[in-house]
Amino acid sequence: MHSISEENYIKAIYHLQEGQALVSTNDIAGRMKTKASSVTDMLKKLADKKLAEYIPYKGARLTENGVLCANQIIRKHRLWEVFLVEKLDFSWDEVHDVAEQLEHIQSPKLTNELDKFLNYPKHDPHGDPIPDSKGNYEKYTQVALGDLEIGQQGVLTGVVNTSRDFLRYLDKHEIKLGAQIQLLEIEEFDGSCRVKSDGRELYISKQTVESLFVKIK
Amino acid sequence: MHSISEENYIKAIYHLQEGQALVSTNDIAGRMKTKASSVTDMLKKLADKKLAEYIPYKGARLTENGVLCANQIIRKHRLWEVFLVEKLDFSWDEVHDVAEQLEHIQSPKLTNELDKFLNYPKHDPHGDPIPDSKGNYEKYTQVALGDLEIGQQGVLTGVVNTSRDFLRYLDKHEIKLGAQIQLLEIEEFDGSCRVKSDGRELYISKQTVESLFVKIK
DNA sequence: ACTAATTTTTAGGTTTGCCTAAAAATAGAT
DNA sequence: ATCTATTTTTAGGCAAACCTAAAAATTAGT
Ligand SMILES: [Mn+2]
Ligand SMILES: [Mn+2]
Ligand SMILES: [Mn+2]
Ligand SMILES: [Mn+2]
Q1: What is the CATH number of domain B142-215?
Q2: CA distance B46 to B62
Q3: Is B113 within 8 Å of A90 when comparing Cβ atoms?
Q4: pLDDT at site A32
Q5: In which residue ranges of chain B is pLDDT below 50?
Q6: Which of B89, B110, B116 shows the shortest C-beta gap to A98?
């Protein structure tokens, strides 16, 4: 199988290649917090294993096989996050580092039994979709909260930023995934917004507005 | 912290040093399925880290710190085994390889929440005791089933041998941990036994008798 | 006690994944 | 088009964990 290091690179490339035709060595280095030279080493290895296409000096992109592999890792990561929050009383800002380890456990039976035990959840605690055992997942149209029209409403489905501080901030203000949310007003001056969520009216900063995704029907 | 490799050596030494004053390089190599030279390398490293005392040409033994560390790994291993059997429908002969990976996940919170979620189990699916968060565990006197007196009875508490074949054999003959078991007769010829378990009388081989532990009051 | 067999260590080598520093390629600015 | 800044690769090295083969120490047999 693949080493933990290989898996972490695969996941990083997967997340970076959305939209992009090719992902640059430097971008991967940034996300992995390693040096560009280490990335080059790994890209050659992933290309050898037919998990990525690699064009020297141009960049890389996962092959079909690489994408499949990425989906399995992401599936495990997100299932474990659900487990930690739903069964073990972790809060959603505590799960990431542990899931980062658990995603590398190799046992298809474990993954599938966990999925069953959790009742085949479709989304993780941060609102991100969970691929099924074949790698398929629901892609609904998400829009940044700030891109709604004034008065338009949607369901809060995800967060862009999963920093501890940001998740704690949301908890403190009782902003929860799944809540109905309506954009009432955008302040020209600083980009902050007035929104209505579950009946309550609240003011949130420009930064927060840009970090929240909503699903619109 | 400690690498996965270090942890596996610590666990191996822990299991081997029961009774023994010092564990030999060769014994460790045997259990770890590595070469003696690799063991020597690791023993030096564990000694540097004050996890083991190592006397060249004589052998090694865990320090107090090493034992503490072993207990934590074993605690995690056995808690995950309980989880797999009780919550995810694994059978007791399928859990070992996965637990071998899960035991290395680093998160004290995860371990303790898992313990709580499982209702603080005292024994794993093979009857082995689970250390608590301080490393203490219940040591009751277990006796090999074959060492009972004729007519004496006890509660089946554990298995020595956790090979797949053996565990499947026990399942097939419905020999279950926790069952009351009485030794009725030992056959001089081949050492096989007649026992009564949960009312049923059955014949079991010498090898099986030696692989089963019972608790006597 | 001496020799032979066994055990253990040392020496030297490999692979994986990382690093720094230098060289080469590419992209950007005038 | 040329020069400059940035990006990327190469070269060479290091640590962890493994290996084989040879040397050294220990143990066992007589
Ligand atoms: Mn990871
Ligand atoms: Mn998540
Ligand atoms: Mn292990
Ligand atoms: Mn067990």
Answers
A1: 2.30.30.90
A2: 9
A3: yes
A4: 98
A5: none
A6: B110
